[in-house]
């Protein structure tokens, strides 16, 4: 145990040297030692949680250097120049960035594959980058009340996604890859411009609820509320024609 503590202190010194190459070395060392990684993560946990509280997220949404400045000035956690390597160590699986007038998804979110729940609703976001596939642990994604016009093909790589909320956007069509969301059980498309759903959606065996209310497709099929696809399977299949 004493040896493990010494290793932990060595890793922390590497991080706190502020040198990207040292941070990379530390990351590589921890990859082969889960117990050591847990110790280091636990060391930073209370400090990182303080930084990542909702009330302080605006410090670095558009300009990550502001976060670095705050960290350095307040000496709360080390200033990592190599953010790409260390963001995955942040002990956080949920992020909420609502009502912030964001026009795009902050780039640093895609550096955090540990995220399981992301709420970006009530903003002005116009597109979802292909990098969304980096969030392979994502289970819940809320992007309702934005300015989205399309979804990227890579959305289909989110194999753990169970809930996708996209109501009140300007989406005109869904990508063929929507059928690859094998865990999806809840899909809200209300008040979009969707006229059809790809036939690949027939593969969504886990889908139990779908909302296309106030869409051209919904109006055409006289659907004014959510469909429980597990019950109304034929009704769902008819939508794919």
List keywords for this structure.
241 residues; 7 helices; six-stranded parallel sheet
What this model shows, in words?
The protein folds into 2 domains: 92 residues, no CATH class; 149 residues, Leucine-rich repeat, LRR (right-handed beta-alpha superhelix). The chain is elongated, with a radius of gyration of 21 Å. Strands 1-2-3-4-5-6 form a 6-stranded parallel beta sheet, with no helix packed on it. By secondary structure, the protein is an alpha/beta fold. About 10% of the residues have low confidence. The protein contains 7 helices and 6 strands. Helix 1 packs antiparallel against helix 2 and helix 1 packs across helix 3.
Largest sheet: 6 strands, parallel
- Shape, per Cα inertia axes: elongated
* CATH topology descriptor of the largest domain: Leucine-rich repeat, LRR (right-handed beta-alpha superhelix)
Briefly, what CATH class of the largest domain? Alpha Beta
CATH superfamily of the largest domain: Ribonuclease Inhibitor
- What is the count of structural domains? 2
Could you give a short description of this structure?
It is built from 7 helices and 6 strands, in the order αααααββββββαα. It has helices spanning 2-15, 20-31, 34-51, 64-74, 83-86, 216-220, 233-239, and strands at 94-96, 117-119, 140-142, 163-165, 186-188, 209-211. The chain has a 6-stranded parallel sheet with strand order 1-2-3-4-5-6, with no helix packed on it.
